[in-house]
Design goal:
It is a single chain. By secondary structure, the chain is an alpha/beta fold. Helices cover about 20% and strands about 25% of the residues. It has nine helices and 23 strands. It has helices at about 220-225, 230-245, 265-280, 295-310, 330-340, 370-385, 410-420, 445-450, 455-465; strands at about 20-25, 35-40, 45-55, 60, 65-70, 75-80, 85, 90-95, 100, 105-115, 120-125, 130, 175-180, 200-210, 215, 250-255, 285-290, 315-320, 345-350, 355-360, 365, 390-395, 440-445. The strands form five sheets. It has an eight-stranded parallel β-barrel, surrounded by four helices. A five-stranded antiparallel sheet has the order 1-2-3-10-6, with no helix packed on it. Strands 7-8-5-11-12 form a five-stranded antiparallel sheet, with no helix packed on it. Strand 17 (about 285-290), helix 4 (about 295-310) and strand 18 form a beta-alpha-beta unit. Helix 3 (about 265-280) runs parallel beside helix 4 (about 295-310), helix 4 (about 295-310) runs parallel beside helix 5 (about 330-340) and helix 6 (about 370-385) crosses helix 7. The longest helix has 18 residues, at about 265-280.
Length: about 475
């Protein structure tokens, strides 16, 4: 989520159906540090690839770089859990801040989408062959894609988990909105002036300090000036005012420009300590993780569990990942959600600024800004381990709020109906209904007010009609 007029565009290109895993074997060599590649999906015109770096040696690896060639006409689209630089058909992926260290016997992975024929060749890991020996010069053959289409929806499997949610005093279905602690072309608001339709208000944003993992918050000077004087004391009083109306106020960490890094035990402790201090100072009801530049699921989970142990079971823990972060349970953000699902309140995925993406049927690339897109992508989370009450639909509040994926509030309501009741669906229908679907989120309250408060006035009453 971004402070300027448009949100950041995700590095996502249109993709199509995933029709099964296709392995591309690297040569076998003696134990050591190796990188192996697999096509986890291949649909003829494109594919999804995954590299796994395994430390089979006896000493820790501190940092890795995987470089390879792709044939002419083959390109790399979106990618995750690595950084990418390209020169012609040579592509070089390097570790992120949280996954560069690999202990003996451990492994890490990253993935990307490829468009066109072929597979990686001439693979090198930290300057030597990915398999530990001579670099391969030709790509092994890939399995041909099936010629018949799979069913449009997957068969029912084990129902999603149904264990009760943590006790946070929230309604069964809720509307969340982000409040700007900055000034931009949207209307500036004092916190107490957030419209009554919102159940949870996420204050955007707490920001990083010089101490790794630690965050801080204060009323933005530009906002204070725009409001004719707005102090930290005024803000604290407004938090209490909203709470007296039955609302919850949480502090959101990160945003599009956020650089909060929780990558080890020390930074996890600093995060827990600093967020706890903000809760004590301002009276926040919880925390929202909106880190759009990657996170370490192990240490962020450690930080959040520490925070909850200090605050108690009433702590709200929300997340606001981008769509690419929730495509696979193996991605860092998704893994964090699953690792803390016993204390997690809600994941409000940003179903916008993403282009076309795969849904839970793995059968098509659904275009953003449609009921199909919202439902098919929410279905991934619902079928991969999150409870329905932990899944919310994040959409922009209208013109100015995002660069893509803006929908009429009626589309949000239709998506909620499709998930909760099996009605008002598009061509995609989920394998089951999820009456407990938690609700909706919007970026942002300020943009909604700028656009006449249409989002809240349309979606909030509809939430009250859900099962």
């Amino acid at each position: 989520m971004k402070r300027s007029r448009s949100l950041v565009f995700s590095l996502v290109t249109a993709v199509v159906a995933a029709l099964g895993a296709v392995w591309v074997a690297m040569p076998a060599f003696a134990a050591g540090v190796t990188a192996s590649f697999v096509k986890t999906a291949d649909w003829g015109s494109g594919w999804e690839g995954k590299f796994t770096i395994t430390n089979g040696g006896g000493s820790t690896v501190d940092g890795w770089t995987v470089a390879f060639d792709l044939p002419a006409g083959t390109t790399v689209g979106s990618y995750w859990d690595a950084l990418l630089t390209s020169s012609g058909q040579r592509h070089t992926f390097t570790n992120r801040s949280w996954n560069g260290r690999i202990a003996p016997g451990a492994s890490v992975s990253f993935g990307f989408l490829g468009s066109g024929p072929g597979a990686p060749t001439n693979c090198q890991l930290n300057g030597t062959a990915c398999g530990g020996g001579t670099n391969p010069t030709t790509a092994p053959p890939t399995t041909a894609p099936p010629t018949t289409a799979p069913p449009t929806t997957p068969p029912p499997t084990t129902p999603p988990p149904t264990s009760p949610p943590p006790n946070t005093g929230l309604p069964k279905h809720l509307l969340t909105g982000y409040w700007h602690n900055f000034d931009n072309p949207a209307v500036e608001l004092r916190l107490r002036d957030v419209p009554a339709e919102y159940d949870v208000v996420a204050v955007a944003f707490a920001e990083a300090t010089a101490t790794p993992g630690a965050v801080t918050f204060a009323v933005d000077p530009g906002l204070s000036t725009a409001l004719g004087g707005y102090t930290d004391a005024d803000f604290s009083a407004d938090v209490r005012a909203l709470q007296s109306r039955g609302k919850k106020v949480i502090i959101s960490v990160g945003g599009e420009t956020g650089r909060v890094a929780v990558n080890d035990a020390a930074s996890a402790a600093a995060f827990s300590d600093s967020v706890h201090a903000l809760i004590q100072r301002y009276g926040f009801d919880g925390v929202d993780i909106d880190l759009e530049n990657g996170l370490n699921p192990t240490y962020m989970a450690q930080a959040l569990r520490s925070l909850r142990a200090r605050v108690g079971a009433g702590l709200i823990i929300a997340m606001a990942p981008q769509t690419i972060d929730m495509q696979s349970p193996e991605s860092s953000y998704f893994k964090l959600a699953l690792d803390i699902r016993d204390i997690l309140t809600v994941v409000n995925t940003q179903f916008y600024n993403s282009g076309a993406m795969l849904g839970c049927d793995r059968n098509a690339a659904y275009s953003q800004g449609t009921v199909n897109f919202i439902v098919a992508l929410a279905c991934i989370q619902l079928e991969a381990g999150l409870r329905p009450d932990q899944v919310g639909l994040g959409l922009p509040a209208g013109p100015g709020a995002a660069g893509g994926g803006i929908v009429a509030p009626a589309v949000v309501n239709a998506a909620l109906d499709c998930l909760a009741r099996g009605t008002n669906c598009g061509s995609f229908r989920p394998p089951r209904t999820y009456p407990g679907i938690r609700g909706a989120m919007t970026w942002s309250v300020n943009w909604d007010v700028t656009n006449g408060n249409t989002f809240a006035r349309t979606v909030a009453p509809h939430l009250d009609t859900l099962p």
